[in-house]
């Protein structure tokens, strides 16, 4: 995905890495992760297969850049997780199967995780936890106390709290992935997703992500929805946008439903 998962600023982006250097760097991280988790086989072939999947031509948002961004956010939030490496494994697999015209991507990604990690000799309990976390990205609705689920979901949704330019790049990439959907249908469906997100008491469950991303995410969502909305809806959107006013003392609200279609 383009650098849509940037922090909530529009600071100049670093010079882009070449595709080869980016994927080799990720492959190194994957190999270290699998070995740390007790892999009994060479991790490299599975890592290269994952990177091949993340580089498929139908992807515009769900690309290697998105994988890298989510892994970076997991690292930032790792202290909140009970099993940070299980969350990292789930990040690698959470969009490993991705077809924008299909609805079973997360289930197929979870099944791929089970096959790959079983084949690598990882303990069954950790494999099951990774598959559970991958399936959680259908809804991004971790149960209270699900610390690993909270970290993965917050890392995956961090893109919503990027600076305006980064968010615009994200939204444009999503539209490109759904280029096969007629414009009126896309606008209606996308607006419904944005309204659902804006109606939530909290988009993020960890304290760090909530403080960093919640206010800018609500501002971004309201701005995009305003571009999609009919004139009669603009007053309602203005009211929703007020929820985006920063509140440095705010703590995350009680966990609530989060739409997984962002």
In short:
The chain has eleven helices and no strands. The chain has helices at 19-36, 44-54, 64-77, 84-93, 105-119, 124-136, 147-157, 164-177, 183-198, 207-228, 234-241.
Which tags fit this structure?
disordered N terminus; 262 residues; mainly alpha
How does this model look, in words?
This protein has 262 residues and is mainly α. 58% of the residues lie in helices and 0% in strands. The protein has 11 helices and no strands. Helix 5 packs antiparallel against helix 6, helix 9 packs antiparallel against helix 10 and helix 10 packs antiparallel against helix 11. The chain is globular, with a radius of gyration of 18 Å. The relative contact order is 0.13. The N terminus and C terminus are likely disordered.
> Low-confidence spans: pLDDT under 50, at least 5 residues?
1-21, 246-261
Q: What gross morphology would you assign?
A: globular
Summarize the main sheet. none
State the assembly state of the protein chains. Answer: single chain
Secondary-structure element series: HHHHHHHHHHH
Portion in strands: under 5%
Q: What is the number of E strands?
A: 0
Instruction: Give me the Rg, rounded.
Output: 18 Å
Could you report the average pLDDT, rounded to the nearest whole number? 85
Please give the share of residues in helix. Answer: 55-70%
Number of helices: 11
Decide which structural class fits the backbone: mainly alpha
Distance between the termini: 14 Å
Secondary-structure topology with pairs:
Elements: H1 19-36, H2 44-54, H3 64-77, H4 84-93, H5 105-119, H6 124-136, H7 147-157, H8 164-177, H9 183-198, H10 207-228, H11 234-241
């Amino acid at each position: 995905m383009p650098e849509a998962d940037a922090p909530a600023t529009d600071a100049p982006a670093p010079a882009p890495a070449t595709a080869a250097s980016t994927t080799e760097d990720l492959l190194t991280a994957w190999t270290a992760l699998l070995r740390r988790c007790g892999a009994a086989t060479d991790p490299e072939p599975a890592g290269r297969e994952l990177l091949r999947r993340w580089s498929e031509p139908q992807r515009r948002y769900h690309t290697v850049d998105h994988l890298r961004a989510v892994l970076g956010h997991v690292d930032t939030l790792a202290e909140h997780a009970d099993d940070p490496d299980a969350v990292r494994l789930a990040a690698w697999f959470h969009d490993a199967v991705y077809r924008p015209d299909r609805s079973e991507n997360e289930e197929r990604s979870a099944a791929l995780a089970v096959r790959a990690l079983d084949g690598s000799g990882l303990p069954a309990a950790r494999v099951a936890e990774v598959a559970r976390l991958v399936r959680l990205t259908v809804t991004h609705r971790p149960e209270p106390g699900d610390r690993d689920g909270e970290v993965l979901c917050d890392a995956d949704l961090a893109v919503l709290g990027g600076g305006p330019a980064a968010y615009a790049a994200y939204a444009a990439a999503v539209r490109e992935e759904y280029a096969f959907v007629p414009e009126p249908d896309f606008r209606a469906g996308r607006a419904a997703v944005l309204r659902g997100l804006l109606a939530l008491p909290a988009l993020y469950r960890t304290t760090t992500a909530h403080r960093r991303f919640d206010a800018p995410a609500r501002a971004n969502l309201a701005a995009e929805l305003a571009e999609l909305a009919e004139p009669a809806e603009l007053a309602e959107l203005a009211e929703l946008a007020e929820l985006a006013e920063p509140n440095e003392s705010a703590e995350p609200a009680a966990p609530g439903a989060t739409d997984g279609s962002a």
